[in-house]
Amino acid sequence: MVNRSDFVEIVDCPPDYISQVLFLEGLSKLVVTSWDGSLSIYDYRDRNNVVLEVRLVHDTAITCCTESMIDNERCLYVGTVQGEVLKVELSNGTFIPVSGSLCNELGICGIFSTRQGQVITCSWDGYIQVINVLTNSMVKMVKIDKKILVSDFDGERLILATSGNKIVTFDIPLSTDDKGNEVESGLKYQIRDIKITPQHDAYVSCSVDGRVAVEYFNDDTKKFAFRCHRISLSDSQFVFPVNSLCFVPNSNILYTGGSDGCMSCWNLTSRKKIEQLPKFDENSIVETVCNGDVLCVATSDDSFKTNPAIFKNIELNPSKLYLLYL
Hints:
Number of helices: 0
Distance between the termini: 12 Å
Structural class: mainly beta
Strand content: over 45%
Mean pLDDT: 95
Order of helices and strands: EEEEEEEEEEEEEEEEEEEEEEEEEEEEEE
Radius of gyration: 19 Å
Strand order of the largest sheet: 1-30-29-28
CATH topology of the largest domain: Methylamine Dehydrogenase, Chain H
CATH class of the largest domain: Mainly Beta
Shape: globular
CATH architecture of the largest domain: 7 Propeller
Helix content: under 10%
CATH superfamily of the largest domain: YVTN repeat-like/Quinoprotein amine dehydrogenase
Number of domains: 2
C-alpha cells in the first residue's frame, strides 16, 4: 500500500502547466517541459535531495521533448506551441531550429526518437516530420487529413489519435506516400492520451469521459474497455477526464491519472485495479512516466479547460512534481 508520505515532492517545479516529463535513459535525470517555455533537468539519485541541475527558457511554450544520440553524445529535441522543432544545446543554453522544418500553425503535439538516428514529430494540424539528427534537418514529411490529438511511438510503430474519432498507425521507417492504417477508436469521446503496450501487441487510450480502452493490433476479439476516475453520487456519477497513461516497463501494469487528482494502478491481464494511490493535491494529474525504478507524476491546474470563459488575469494553482521510488 502506497502512502502519501512515500512520494517525494520536487522543489523548484515550473509553476505553469507541465507539458511533458521524461526520464533520460541510463541516467538518474528527469526532464520536465512546461508551457512557460522552460526545460528543467533534475538529478533524482538522492530521494532526500532532488536537485535542479539545468533550467533553460525558450520564448514560447514547449509542448514536448525527446532525447537522441549524436555520435554517442546525448542531446534533446523539443517541440513548441508555435510549431517549431528545436535542438537543445545544453552546453550553452541555446535552442537551435531544425533546418527545413515547417513552422506548423497549430504546434507540435508529439516528438520521438528512433533507433535510426532520427526524430519524428507530430503536429496538431496533421503533419508528421522526420528529422536527421546528424544534419539537424528535416528529411521527410507526411500530411494526414485530420488533426493529431495525441501520439505514441514504440520504436517500430507510430500511433496517432486524431479528430473524427480515428486511430492511425504508421510503420517506421516512414515512406512519403504512406497514409497509414486507419481504424475507428474504441472510445466515443475525445482521447486525452494513447500508449502502445510494452509487449507491442496492443494500445491503450483514455478519454474525457472517464474511460480507458485496450485494443489489439491483430486480434479484435481481445479488446476491452473500463470506466475509472469517477465519483458515485446517490443518483448519478461525477465523471473526470483521464489525462495520462503510463506503463511499468516490460509489464502489463498500467497507471492512469485523471482530473480528479487521483492515480490508479491496473493489471491488464487480470483486468483489475490493483491499487489506488492517494490523492496528491487539488490539481489534475496531467503527465506521468515510469522507468521501472521511479514513477513521476506531474499535476497542473486545468480548470481553465472547463471554464465557460477565459479571463486574461485568471489565477491558476501552481504545478507540482512528485516522485515515487519503486
